[in-house]
Amino acid sequence: MTAELTRGQNHPLAQTRLEIRVSAAEAVVAGATLGGADGRVAGERSVAHPASHRLPGLEVSRQAAAEHRLAVDLDALPESVHHVNVLLALPAGQGGPARFGAMAAPFVAVTGLDGAEVASYTVTGLDSESAVVALELYRRQGGWKVRAVGQGYAGGLVAMLHDQGLADATGTAAAIEAAVAQGMARSVAPPPAQAPSPSPAPASGTPSASPGSRVSYEHPRRRASAPAAAPGPAEPASGPERPAPPVAGDANGWTMDERLYNQVWGMFEDLARSAAAYRSAVDFAESRLERELDEVLSDPLTRVGPAADAARAEARARHEDLATRARAVLDRDLGRLVAESEVVEHALPPAFARWDSPVWQGYQLPLETPMALRLGDLHLPERTDLRIPMLVRLPLERGLWIDSGRPSGPEAALPATAELRRRAMDTAVAHAARLLAVHPVADFTVQVIDPAGAAGASLAPLLSSGALREAPAAGAQGVSAVLDRLTRRVDLVQMAIRSGAADALPPDLDTAEQLLVVNDFPHGFDDRGVTQLRYLADEGPSVGVHLMMVADRADARAYGPVLDPFWRALLRITPVADDHLADPWVGHTWTYEPPVVPPGSDVLRQVLRQVGQARQAYGI
Q1: How far apart are CA 602 and CA 579, in angstroms?
Q2: Three state DSSP letters for 512-536
């Protein structure tokens, strides 16, 4: 849950690799200073700013912008650093506001690498100040905390840097302003002011405008790179620069994989915001049309006749114009995202890539666990060919439920229940194969419970390659043996962690990450087995035991509401396209598409063959 801070409040930080996200109504400069135990900055090499954007454990943006993402790795900071101050300043001489009081309050959030907010702060109460210390990250009793500061400086950068103990505050401020001016000169110029500039609509909610006024539904993160209008007769032939082509890895992060992960999440957010802005515009256009038509009909004297017909026609024309312009902006934004998606898709590593990616042709066994895993693709109805990879962090924080029941999405009319069950198990095998392929050989093990032995055909790639160490457990006795073994493992590891005696674990205990694939639940499970399964779902992920259920919830209806918490604890995905993933942030329902091995492709068997050979070589 996000901690919404007010000035002076603090909040503990459980993670050490963080992002600090800044959102402002106008372009601002974002930077940071590293202070010692006394809070003083040792010198200009302890200041991260556009002219020197990287320091050990810290990376900031290279130019002024309305939105920033600062990467912070607290473990990588020098031992002498006890304070990290996040600074915001208005760029001087760039045509923007000269004081923070002339614009909406900036918003700053501290997030984990998965985008989940840890703490946020709206920097209110500013007036004549043109620079502000927004947040402070500081050491406290062996850990780190974040404090909302909100200390503004009417003297700008110089006064703020001088107050932090920087000897050459004037020189450093001049270097920052020069770098910002150079970056602004490289950026895309705004279109010529031939007409009053419309106000941008928010990403969600109803835009405000009086009838007949111009409303801009420009995406707030795309305004700086909007395509320029064609040059008129009096303009230079060269015109402003066009947006730069998309680049894979164009996001903050310490490694290329982390940059790609953050870029994918940025694409997801951009698509969500663009769709929200478009839907908001359409809703506004329809509500305005209804209001204007009601006004025409409200007066009996003007309800009929040529004047009324003309008023209705004008209202419909305004509605059509507004909807058309909103769709044009959406198509432009989505076109850019499609171009970015095509570039990024070809650069993704195996853990993030589709099964038809060329990266699998050069697959090699990894030496370390990746930060995330691709579970499928997500898309919205506004552009179904724009698919965003659905990436989840590793290790898995919750189990997976592959629903073999009838979906509610576009393939709800699938006639054969047996076909759905087969697809569900094929999907489970594809996920298990990817997990095995992206982990180091000895770090991940898959076990299967198939009480009736109904999944033999789907499990063939795992069995024939040797990637599956043991044959699937069948019958009541086999189910009980596997559940007893994994439950014992969870109990022992938990006790070892609590007592600080990890080296006292029994030598026969497999400490590798465990994935238990359960087919056709609840068939073959007695009440004790169901209880053990619920225990593994709740306690297993924290000690490296993960569930992948292949089940139809309707088959377990005899248990009634007893299993409701169990189903809620699992992430539900489907073997066919289904629009069941809700996004409470902007109210979208995303359509999920499972990862599919191309028909006729042998890529899955080739990858599993390499995994199996390596496991045999290691004696696993």
Answers
A1: 29
A2: CEEEEEEEEECCCCCHHHHHHHHHH
Listed in sequence order, the residues at least 6 apart from 149 whose beta carbon sits closer than 8 Å to its beta carbon are: 7, 8, 85, 133, 134, 135, 136
Q: Tell the residue number behind the tokens 């169901």, with chain if given.
A: 530
**pTM (two decimals):** 0.63
Taking the CB of residue 507, how many other CB atoms lie within 10 A of it? 4
pLDDT one-digit tens code per residue, 110-126: 998 888 899 999 998 88
- Tell me if 9 sits within 8 A of 147, measured CB to CB: yes
Question: At 87, is the secondary structure helix, strand, or coil?
Answer: strand
Residue whose entry in the numeric block shows the structure tokens 């691709």? 374
- Give per-residue pLDDT as tens, 141-161: 788 999 999 999 999 999 999
Q: Residue 234: its pLDDT value, please? A: 39
Q: How far is CA 65 from the centre of its chain?
A: 21
Are the C-beta atoms of 445 and 509 separated by less than 8 Å?
no
Residue recorded with tokens 């990290």: 84
Question: Which residue shows structure tokens 């790639």?
Answer: 461
109 close to 134: Cβ distance less than 8 angstroms? no
**Taking the CA of residue 157 as centre, how many other CA atoms within 13 Å lie in the half-sphere pointing to its CB?**
26
Question: Whose CA is closest to 545, among 445, 450, 401, 429?
Answer: 445
Q: How many CA atoms lie within 13 A of 613 on its CB side?
A: 8
pLDDT digits over 46-96, tens only?
999 998 889 999 999 888 888 999 999 999 999 999 999 999 999 987 778
Decide if 167 contacts 39 (C-beta within 8 A).
no
> Looking at the predicted structure, is the pLDDT value of residue 285 above 80?
yes
User: Are 326 and 285 within 8 A, CB to CB?
Assistant: yes
- Dist CA 461 CA 127 (whole Å): 66
Q: What is the DSSP string of 118-168?
A: EEEEE--S-SS-SEEEEEEEEEETTEEEEEEEEEEETTHHHHHHHHTT-TT
Report how far residue 239's alpha carbon sits from residue 241's, in angstroms, rounded to the nearest whole number.
7
412 with 403: CB under 8 angstroms? no
List, in order, residues 6 or more apart from 339 with CB less than 8 Å away: 245, 246
- The alpha carbon dihedral of 420, 425, 430, 434 has a sign of positive
Residues paired with 593 in a beta bridge: 377
End-to-end Cα distance, the chain: 41
Residue type, 556: A
Beta strand pairing call for 513-521 and 54-55 = unpaired
* pLDDT tens, residue by residue, 409-468: 554 455 468 888 999 999 999 999 999 999 999 899 999 999 999 999 999 999 999 998
Sheet containing 571-573, strands listed edge to edge, beginning at the edge strand earlier in sequence: 444-449, 513-521, 545-551, 400-403, 571-573
Distance CA 356, CA 580 (A): 25
Alpha-carbon separation of residue 116 from 3, 113, 231, 351, 549 (angstroms): 11, 7, 43, 21, 26
Q: What is the pLDDT of residue 242?
A: 60
